[in-house]
Amino acid sequence: MTQQAAEVAKRRTFAIISHPDAGKTTITEKLLLMGKAIAVAGTVKSRKSDRHATSDWMEMEKQRGISITTSVMQFPYREHMINLLDTPGHEDFSEDTYRTLTAVDSALMVLDGGKGVEPRTIALMDVCRLRDTPIVSFINKLDRDIRDPIELLDEIEAVLKIKAAPITWPIGCYRDFKGVYHLADDYIIVYTAGHGHERTETKIIEKLDSDEARAHLGDEYERFIEQLELVQGACHEFNQQEFLDGQLTPVFFGTALGNFGVDHVLDAVVDWAPRPLARVANERTVEPVEEKFSGFIFKIQANMDPKHRDRIAFMRICSGKYEKGMKMRHVRTGKDVRIGDALTFFSSEREQLEEAYAGDIIGLHNHGTIQIGDTFSEGEVLGFTGIPHFAPELFRRVRLRDPLKSKQLRQGLQQLAEEGATQVFFPERSNDIILGAVGVLQFDVVASRLKEEYKVECSYEPITVYSARWIECSDKKKLEEFSNKAVENLALDGGGHLTYLAPTRVNLALMEERWPDVKFRATREHH
User: Is 141 marked as a binding-site residue?
Assistant: First the structure.
């Protein structure tokens, strides 16, 4: 095996998906603790101390205790290299989150044991299903009251339409939580409270049919045996091929806050989840062990460092090896660039990188030339597919407090739109600027970032827009005719693409019926 093939085989690149408040930020911290990346896990929302969760870094995130932007963290674990992509946990960050899911090979789904499957989880699973991404599941908060575990598994299967195979099974919950039983390997992992902030040695009881196990479970023993018989009769067994095909999810139980069960999940990612996979480009399929370098940009983040007014472009390496100072071709512009200062991420800690392989995420300094969806290679013309824009669901008209700052406003909005969390539209018939987002919190984010980073104050007004559709038409004459008729509702997006802003659902349906040669698209590939 070549050194490159060995490095690729060591990589595991995955994202965490969950509904807000299911404990995702806490599990991220504990995963880093497993990789010894942080010595003490900083409790999220801890009022007494000023330590914020290691992966939440933008000002507004610090105030609200939510992870708005996708962080990337790399850490070693069991002779493997883990690339963890933390996705925005707040309800409405699906566009950024969606694109993050295009850059990973597997995902960890975190569910709140008291609540089960929640709406955001369903939306994110739909995205994973587009690429049949393998999913590992973690049912969290066993140190609190949870719903019946069998009921939770049934819900995963019914709502998320994926087979659920329990790997561990909880012994009690809340104050009676005693640990978990490993179904296949017949041993108990004992839970001891109060070790949330450090790595502890795990106590294991071999065999359920032992005096030690009977003593540990006490009066619960007989009832637990009965429950197990039910579980083993009713549940699916783990099958690795079905897992890799995205048809079955292994399920683990634990408490991220109590730092229990998180290592079982990480072991599953190392043992079962795929190494970096081949990626499809327009021209061909690219294998990770190919010698020549290639990668694509899935996210752009402004001002990771308040001291530096820069933007970082996040790249997923698809093949070859990055070496400091190497030359790359920026395929869209056709320019060759020398990259001497790519970054590796440990949340907000940025370090210069010497080398990186397929599956790794690296950061490139971007002075406005790099866009989401761009491909970099060692000269070959490649365009990786499947990194779309989504039609926003909410719209506001932007109003400027100081009319003399309209240039800064446009510049700020375009730069923020390039990050892909919001979209900006310039109507053809007015000087209005319209902002579109997938969730309401994004409008607050844009206003506070415009104020902090561009010194521009703005407010919003409601506007009658139901949805946006990107216009495509191969018949130039028809397109011109359509453009003349629909001019009141046409706009250009931040990338200069023609967009129809439909005032109502009925209007959109009528227009689609009236103009059969014009395609009204709800997503747009980044090209």
Answer: yes
Please tell me whether 140 is known to bind a ligand: yes
Query: Residue 18 annotated as binding?
Result: yes
Q: Is 21 annotated as a binding residue?
A: yes
Amino acid at 89: G
The two domains 16-67+89-272 and 279-377 share their CATH topology (first three levels equal): yes
Is the CATH number of domain 279-377 3.40.190.10? no
The domain segmentation of the chain, as residue ranges, is 16-67+89-272, 279-377, 389-525
Q: What is the pLDDT of residues 319-364, one digit of tens each?
A: 999 998 999 999 999 999 999 888 876 544 555 668 899 999 998 8
Q: Which residue has the tokens 């963290």?
A: 73
Q: Is the pLDDT of residue 229 over 80?
A: yes
**What rounded mean pLDDT belongs to the chain?**
86
Known binding residue 20? Answer is yes
pLDDT per residue as tens digits for the range 172-202: 888 888 999 999 999 999 988 765 566 666 7
For CA atoms 278, 101, 265, 30, give the dihedral sign: positive
Fold of 389-525: Alpha-Beta Plaits (3.30.70)
Q: Beta strand 321-323 with 523-525: parallel, antiparallel or unpaired? A: unpaired
Total residue count of the chain as it appears in this document: 527
Dihedral angle, C-alpha 225, 226, 229, 232, nearest 10 °:
-80
| Contact between residue 44 and residue 134 where contact means Cβ atoms under 8 Å apart | no
- Give residue for tokens 């404990």: 23
pLDDT higher than threshold 70 for residue 42 = no
How far apart are alpha carbons 130 and 128 in whole angstroms? 5
pLDDT of amino acid 57:
45
> 3-class SS at 51?
coil
% of residues, the chain, pLDDT over 90 = 58
Task: Consult the annotation and say whether 23 binds a ligand.
Answer: yes
Is 87 assigned a ligand-binding role in the annotation? yes
* Three-class secondary structure of residue 33 per DSSP: helix
Q: Is the pLDDT of residue 51 over 80?
A: no
Is 25 annotated as a binding-site member? Answer: yes
Query: Is 504 annotated as ligand-binding?
Result: no
This prediction has a pTM of 0.80
Is 393:467 a contact under the CB 8 Å cutoff?
A: yes
Q: Is 143 annotated as a binding residue?
A: yes
CATH code of the region 16-67+89-272? 3.40.50.300
Neighbours of 220 (CB within 10 A): 14
